[in-house]
Task: inverse folding
């Protein structure tokens, strides 16, 4: 070690009064941390020029040659009482130069919300699959399948089922008719006639009912009452099936109980009117 302090770099460790090395710049040296205790340390570099002026740089650092320790369940300055579960983990070390994530990660319990979400997804998936699954033909008629699922052919709805036709009629009435005749079939006084209890709507013979929807009506009193608004024709907008669905909705709603019609009957009236 040189005794001339001019143009020298002195390296001090922690609170030691004597430098651990002194060199003339520039210099590269190796710090052997294996000789130091694990924990915080400080290196102080002091440079002296020929005039005796000093420059100082302090660099704090931490040594960890032993295994790292992780503590879960206890933090600094915690106030504890009773029995406290504490999870300890140690990882890495001087003899393990490669970081191992599997050892560095302290296992933590799966949060409750994650379990709840998983159960909801599983339950929904099971429900969806059971609702959508259709048994192959060779199993559909087996005693076991029938015992658990019953006769699917008798309970399934075809596209022409009465329920779907009723739903179609209600939907078409709402979009094409309710703005005038109202959702409750009461109409608007002086403008649009009511359909609830209307003699045409409740007539056993649906011909006139079909004609009005297909070809419209204007200026014709209903039970002695004249209405200012005209009934527009729907023959160009609606098919026979759609007209039949609307008529059947009107003839079976708001207390009406009249015979329903078929698309074929509507087609016959349409052909005669054309």
Result:
């Amino acid at each position: 070690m040189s005794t001339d302090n001019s143009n020298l770099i002195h390296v001090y460790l922690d609170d030691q009064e004597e430098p651990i090395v002194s060199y003339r710049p520039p210099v590269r040296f190796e710090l052997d941390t294996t000789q130091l205790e694990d924990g915080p340390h400080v290196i102080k570099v002091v440079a002296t020029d020929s005039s005796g002026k000093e420059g100082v740089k302090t660099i704090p650092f931490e040594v960890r040659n032993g295994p790292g320790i992780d503590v879960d369940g206890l933090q600094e300055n915690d106030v504890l009482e009773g029995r406290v579960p504490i999870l300890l983990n140690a990882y890495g070390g001087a003899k393990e130069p490669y970081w191992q994530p599997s050892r560095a990660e302290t296992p933590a319990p799966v949060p409750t919300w994650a379990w709840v979400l998983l159960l909801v997804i599983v339950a929904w998936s099971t429900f969806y699959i059971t609702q959508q699954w259709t048994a192959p033909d060779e199993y559909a008629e087996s005693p076991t399948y029938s015992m658990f699922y019953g006769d699917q052919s008798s309970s399934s709805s075809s596209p022409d089922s009465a329920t779907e036709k009723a739903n179609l009629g209600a939907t078409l009435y709402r979009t094409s008719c309710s703005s005038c005749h109202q959702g409750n079939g009461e109409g608007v006084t002086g403008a649009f006639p009511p359909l609830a209890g209307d003699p045409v709507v409740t007539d056993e013979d649906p011909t006139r009912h079909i004609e009005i929807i297909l070809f419209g009506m204007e200026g014709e009193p209903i039970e002695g009452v004249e209405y200012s608004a005209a009934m527009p024709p729907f023959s160009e907008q609606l098919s026979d099936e759609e007209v039949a669905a609307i008529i059947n909705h009107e003839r079976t709603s708001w207390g009406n109980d009249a015979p329903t019609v078929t698309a074929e009957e509507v087609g016959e009236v349409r052909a005669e009117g054309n």
